[in-house]
Design goal:
The structure holds two protein chains of two kinds. By secondary structure, chain A is mainly α. Helices cover 69% and strands 2% of the residues of chain A. Chain A contains 15 helices and four strands. Chain A has one domain. The longest helix of chain A has 27 residues. The C terminus of chain A is likely disordered. Chain A is globular. Chain B is an alpha/beta fold. Chain B has a single domain, classed as P-loop containing nucleotide triphosphate hydrolases (Rossmann fold, 3-Layer(aba) Sandwich), CATH 3.40.50.300. Helix content of chain B is 37%, strand content 23%. Chain B is built from eleven helices and ten strands. In chain B, the strands form two sheets. In chain B, strands 6-7-8-3-9-10 form a six-stranded mixed beta sheet, with helices on both faces. In chain B, strand 4 and strand 5 form a beta hairpin. In chain B, helix 4 runs parallel beside helix 7 and helix 6 packs across helix 7. The chains are: A mainly alpha, B alpha/beta. At the A-B interface, helix 6, helix 9, helix 10 and helix 11 of A face helix 1, helix 3, helix 4, helix 5 and helix 7 of B.
């Protein structure tokens, strides 16, 4: 155990040594997670240094998006699997967390029913549907946050990769997947609150979601998850399996004919990516306070891909940069010039595709971002 | 779970990979193709093709375009399933029951017509990825390259003459060097049988000469099948030449015998 953990420690050091952008990102993440809580809690609300709860939550939300973007970059940037339906896994993780939060409301709901969430009382349902059982327990909800997106990705990926569906065709069926889920979740009789989804959450593990302390804790848990997600993906990419994954991206048939089960590698990576997306979604919901079927909308999933493309595909940290840049711009535009946002996003995408083919981080660093240097001698 | 996952994603009809040690070529023949027919929309790419290759042999396959050379390679490596016929690797390995990765792991290496290497990886990494072994995700996540494996890679680098390009990105190699790297990748798997599709297309005369030496040096230790158009090159390496035409064997023998054959002349000159 100690031997293998030492081994992984040294691998981590080696992987980060070759990853300048990653060190910069992790350093920034540590600084931000130290400063943001301090500025929120210490200065008086009137002070210019004070960070409002709104801002803390906003950064927390961006960090969940960044996790989602890393998950997409992992499969798209490194394995060439362009998923235009990753919002579905994010939303499923979010719904699983939402179900837990709904059941925590208990008698504090409008109808005061101790078991049934409000929307079920409203629909005249008499008992809890079977798939809602267990969600009052947090560990069970955690399990579902991982299992539901993971199992969906396993079944979907198994069928798609085994039939060797790839390229544009795969992208299209991932769109169909998230669209189908959106339509299903819009239906009231699915038992997920129809088009209103879930909202009005009260507390998580007994702590009020409105309190600063809970918000800061959620913020820190999100930052930690984002960092862990980054390190995990970096370790995978730097391993020999990671080199196979990139080899599959560059020459799939060659990989197959030197004896790799390309489908296994793709499926494994796809499932992992879906699980990371689900975790990101689960962190998103308690901070934002709402989850509804619009999270499944195909446009959302396309937007994730745009974040990655703008930030710089195949770098992991580029995905983080893209997620923050685009979402900050979105927050700004939807406030200042609401009608302009989609035009701005479209323009940004076109400009980046034409002039910065390796995204913002590729333009900054200038070169060699797609290649990992061979350091061994 | 892991093996179940691997099994699920494999397209093979048999669950286990062919055991590597079991290759039995005790009758002196490493590859048996018998009565193989492949049709695409009514066009017979292979027509009752029967072909045997001996252990350690360097065999050249020639034939006009559309003679079925590449389809034959596809059948041997599991890319195409024939309509009828049988394909055996040694006495015991039924190639028609295995998937592409299983066939590769059982000891058949294939070089594509267009040089295909992993362009974003270094030359060393290309060879490392091609190493024989259980290539599952879980094993490879934790895999460390041992000193022994580095030695093996260095020996292959020597064989293919790319020792000095060891740490260069494969995409930066010349066309000929990529061809050699790809042959090196096959060698990393210690294949008993090498399939080499048009190795000298687009090469300079020096590169052609170097490739001929390389292939001749490989024969003996491995059985090698070379598909080639360049008759000069075939003459320089081949002991036995098989001429394919319209999906079956038209003639077989030494290069001189084959070139003297009236039917071969007719096919090639179109008289």
């Amino acid at each position: 155990m100690t031997k293998s953990s030492a081994q992984y420690g040294s691998r981590l050091t080696a992987a980060l040594q070759a990853d300048r952008g990653g060190r910069l990102f992790l350093g920034t993440l540590i600084v931000v997670s130290a400063i943001v809580p301090l500025l929120n809690l210490l200065p008086s609300p009137a002070s210019a240094l004070h960070l409002s709860n709104y801002t803390v939550t906003l950064i927390g939300k961006y960090m969940t998006y960044a996790m989602l973007a890393i998950a997409v970059d992992l499969i798209w940037g490194y394995c060439g699997i362009l998923s235009l339906g990753h919002g579905a896994f994010f939303a499923l993780g979010g719904y699983a967390m939402g179900m837990y939060l709904m059941r925590q409301i208990g008698t504090r709901g409008v109808y005061g029913n101790p078991i049934l969430p409000d929307f079920m009382v409203f629909l005249n349902w008499k008992e809890l549907p079977w798939f809602w059982e267990g969600f009052n327990a947090f560990p069970y909800a955690l399990l579902m946050i991982v299992l539901v997106p993971g199992m969906l990705a396993l079944v979907f990926g198994f069928l798609a990769f085994r039939s060797r569906v790839s390229g544009v065709y795969l992208s299209i069926i991932t769109q169909a997947l998230t669209y189908a889920l959106m339509l299903a979740f819009f239906r009231n009789d699915m038992g997920f609150g129809g088009n209103n989804g879930f909202t009005d959450f009260k507390d998580i593990l007994g702590f009020s979601l409105q309190s600063s302390a809970t918000r800061i804790t959620l913020f820190l848990v999100t930052a930690l998850s984002l960092g862990a997600c980054y390190v995990l993906c970096r370790l995978i990419i730097a391993s020999r399996a990671g080199r196979v994954i990139q080899a599959i991206r560059d020459a799939e048939n060659r990989a197959r004919f030197i004896g790799y089960r390309v489908e296994s590698y793709k499926l494994w990576l796809f499932v992992l990516s879906a699980v990371l997306s689900g975790i990101a979604g689960a962190l998103y919901v308690p901070q934002v306070g709402i989850i509804n079927p619009s999270e499944f909308s195909p446009a959302n999933s396309i937007e994730i891909v745009i974040w990655v493309a703008i930030g710089g595909r195949g770098t992991l940290y580029g995905a983080v940069v893209g997620a923050f840049l685009v979402n900050y711009a979105k927050t700004y535009f939807t406030d200042a010039l609401p009608s302009m946002w989609l035009y701005a996003l479209g323009t940004l995408f076109v400009v980046v595709t034409l002039f910065l083919p390796r995204g913002v981080v590729g333009a900054i660093s200038g070169r060699e971002f797609f290649r990992r240097r061979a350091l061994r001698t | 779970m892991r093996t179940a996952l691997d099994r699920l994603t494999s397209r093979s009809r048999s669950a286990k990979p062919a055991p590597r040690a079991a290759l039995d070529a005790s009758h002196g023949v490493i590859l048996y193709l018998e009565d193989i027919t492949v049709s695409f929309d009514g066009f017979r790419a292979l027509n009752a093709l029967t072909l045997y290759v001996e252990v350690g042999e360097l065999r050249c396959i020639i034939g006009p375009n559309g003679a079925g050379k590449t389809t034959m390679m596809d059948v041997i490596t599991g890319k195409t399933r024939p309509d009828t016929g049988s394909a055996w690797f040694g006495q015991t390995v039924d190639l028609l029951a295995l998937s592409e990765p299983q066939i590769a792991q059982s000891g058949i290496g294939r070089k594509f017509q267009k040089p295909t290497v992993f362009e974003n990886h270094s030359v060393f990494e290309n060879l490392e990825l091609a190493m024989a072994g259980p290539k599952t995700v879980w094993k490879w996540l934790a895999a460390q390259t041992t000193a022994e494996q580095v030695d093996h890679i260095d020996r292959v680098l020597q064989t293919i003459g790319l020792t000095e390009r060891r740490l260069d990105i494969a995409g930066a190699l010349s066309h000929g060097q990529k061809q050699w790297l790809e042959i090196g990748m096959l060698l990393m798997q210690d294949p008993q049988l090498l399939l080499v599709d048009e190795p000298v297309a687009g090469m300079t005369p020096q590169e052609v000469e170097r490739t001929a030496e390389l292939l001749v040096s490989l024969a003996g230790k491995h059985s090698v099948i070379v598909v080639e158009h360049d008759m000069e090159f075939v003459r320089s390496i081949a002991r036995t030449v098989t001429v394919l035409h319209e999906g079956s064997v038209l003639a077989q023998g030494s290069i001189d015998e084959v070139q003297a054959d009236a039917r071969v002349q007719q096919v090639y000159l179109g008289e």
